[in-house]
Amino acid sequence: MQTCLYDKDATVFIDICVLRYSNEDIVASASIDGFDEFNAYTRNHTVPAPSEEFDAGVEMLLQAVINYTATSRSRYGTGVQVLGTNGNRRPTYALAQCQPTMAPQECSSCLSYLYQRMPVSFNGKRDGRMRLWRCLLEFDDYPFFTGDPIIRTPPPETLEIRSGRRKRHKKVDTVVIVAVAVTVFTVTLAVFLVIRTRRKRARMQLHGQAQSQNSSKTEAALKLWRTEESSTEFTLYEFSELVAATASFLNENLLGSGGFGSVYKGKLRSGAEIAVKRLSSRSNQGLEQFKTEVQLLVKLQHTNLVRLVGCCVNEEEKLLVYEYMPNGSLDQFIFDQQGPLLDWNQRLRIMEGIAEGILYLHKYSRVRVIHRDLKSSNVLLDKDFNPKISDFGLARIFRSNMMESNSKRIAGTYAYMAPEYASKGTFSVKTDVCSFGVLMLEIVSGKRNSSSDHNMLEHAWQLWREGRESELIDLRLGVCSEVAAIVRCIKVALLCVQDSATDRPTMADVLAMLAAIDGAASLPDPKLPRQLLSSGVTTGLLEIRTQLYSTMFSVNDVSITTMQGR
């Protein structure tokens, strides 16, 4: 379930059951047109060659079990058949099952759909299982179900005649029986082999069409990127170039790994250092998403965004090439207690740089962009510790007249998610503001926020409520004269992570507050989260907060004003 934690519609297949949930009515619908629900698996245990007779026998057994299951009241059927070549014969078991509420025709259609989609890779295998969430079809060389098999089909070969039971029959009768059996078997086997050959050919044709379609999409994308290459500094690399640059993706060059793939350090023939992101074959990021990310990054040019210098598409390989950041990612500095220490001025400069990068995405770039995955590991540091926002795999383009949008699939890191996005999939520019607030608290405290019950964010609110914000400051900073400025920074962060998106400041407001962090300009008080309000915050506590603030800062009437273009 961790893999589909933020999906609104998901199917989980495990050995003994199937779990499905959705935000739509999946009980009333009997549709089986969801290709992403199809699941196939084999242990790759092979039978001795030649396997054609065995495969034909498996198909006969599956057809018999399908026919029985579709008409049975329980929509459940099992069967067994002895298969294999002489000297290596063993029983093969099969099981078919549909949801009990399905009509016979629906069950038959569902199981037939599985049968028709049986992968070519199942040929010559002793086992295989295919599943949709409404039905399943399996075979194996051991009795993997409980109870005796309901159906016992004869082996697809010459029937053995036991001489002890045939002594009273004439020899001619034996010859006739054997001849008839051989003829029937030969015809049956021939029919199944023809059907199987046609089905295999159809599967290969469909596979070829899919490959051709993917190939045409790839060519279209490459054509577009060649145009980009001629008009910008963007480069379309050959796969062999990147293999050579990374020493065949040597582990020693591995910079890090994530859900979308691994990043390697590389060095081109020109001597330029690069970072190569090799997307995992298990990644859900297909060509369309990859193409969107490339086209998006090519259009984004800002000193606080990591620069995409090129890409590569080679069959199933998809790679992104970035400028190399020698200091790695921010999380390596703020969470590693034994690592290099960032002083307060460096931390403040990093926060300001990140804020400027986000403001550029929200307001000043050629296209308005919501990042949706802002976190410490996605902030890289150059040789001078200037921050560069990276990883735009989840980014979304936002029209200038849009206030918010919804996503069916909730993706990202839960600890950084805004409440409205985590619960409803609603995102806006304020979604990134909330993530930035969490990131600010991590930079100030040196502690990682988590999705556990006692997370750092909740701790920060508790300390602020009690007027003890200074306890959140990273102890590694030691005794410093900027405590008041750091506490104001914590307050800015809490303004960013307020429950209601409308209460959060814009990134322009945040930058203005950070620019005046050492001043005496008044800041509004953040609104406490609902769970803290319900826990009983008294007026007395809030009065204590106000008194504590008045002793820490000189109070005046200066306010911060930011200009917003229409």
Features:
GNK2_sf; alpha+beta; Phosphorylase Kinase, domain 1; Killer Toxin P4, Chain A; signal; single chain; GNK2; ATP binding; elongated; protein serine/threonine kinase activity; 6-stranded mixed beta sheet; 20 strands; 14 helices
Q: Give the DSSP E fraction (strand runs of 2 or more residues).
A: 15-25%
Which structural class do you get from the secondary structure elements?
A: alpha+beta
Low-confidence stretches: 158-170, 206-214, 536-563
CATH architecture of the largest domain, by name, is Orthogonal Bundle
Domain Protein kinase: 249-517
Binding site for ATP: 277
Subcellular location: Membrane
Keywords: ATP-binding, Disulfide bond, Glycoprotein, Kinase, Membrane, Nucleotide-binding, Receptor, Repeat, Serine/threonine-protein kinase, Signal, Transferase, Transmembrane, Transmembrane helix
